[in-house]
């Protein structure tokens, strides 16, 4: 398993993109909006050396990113780890007592399948597992 990306909650995505590209030298490689219920977020993917940063700006008051910013402020929202097979990883972790936020299971527009672990088991940190089978 390896770190796939770091998701960062921001209030103004354009300003955050400018910071990560102009000041830190990153490259904007994807930008899209997901209006799916339970997502409702503008997303920008920045490649920075050997790191991937996913900037997340809420598009509505019902967005989980909006709720996160209201509760904890802007900053690191989640860490995403790539697994070889997402369904197999879920099955293996559940057999060991891990629970997942089942409503977060989805495939993004670029074929990445993902799900969030229940933060009750991860010491409060939001952890995403993902693969690229799609």
UniProtKB/TrEMBL annotation:
Keyword check for Disulfide bond: no
Alphabetically ordered keywords of this record: Metal-binding
PROSITE patterns (UniProt xref): VOC
InterPro entries in alphabetical order: Glyas_Bleomycin-R_OHBP_Dase (IPR029068), MeMalonyl-CoA_epimerase (IPR017515), MMCE/EMCE_epimerase (IPR051785), VOC_core (IPR037523)
Keyword NADP found: no
Similarity-based family: Belongs to the methylmalonyl-CoA epimerase family.
Protein name: VOC family protein
Species of origin: Metabacillus sediminis
């Amino acid at each position: 398993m390896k770190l796939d990306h770091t998701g960062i909650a921001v209030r103004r995505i354009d300003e955050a993109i400018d910071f990560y590209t102009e000041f830190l030298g990153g490259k904007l490689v994807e930008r899209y909006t997901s209006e799916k219920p339970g997502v409702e977020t503008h997303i920008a993917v920045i490649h920075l050396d050997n790191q991937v940063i996913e900037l997340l700006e809420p598009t509505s008051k019902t967005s989980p990113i909006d709720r996160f910013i209201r509760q904890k402020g802007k900053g690191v929202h989640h860490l995403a780890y790539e697994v070889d097979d997402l369904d197999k990883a879920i099955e293996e972790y559940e057999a060991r007592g891990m629970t997942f936020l089942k409503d977060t299971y989805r495939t993004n527009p670029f074929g990445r399948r993902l799900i969030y672990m229940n933060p009750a088991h991860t010491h409060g940190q939001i952890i995403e597992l993902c693969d690229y089978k799609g």
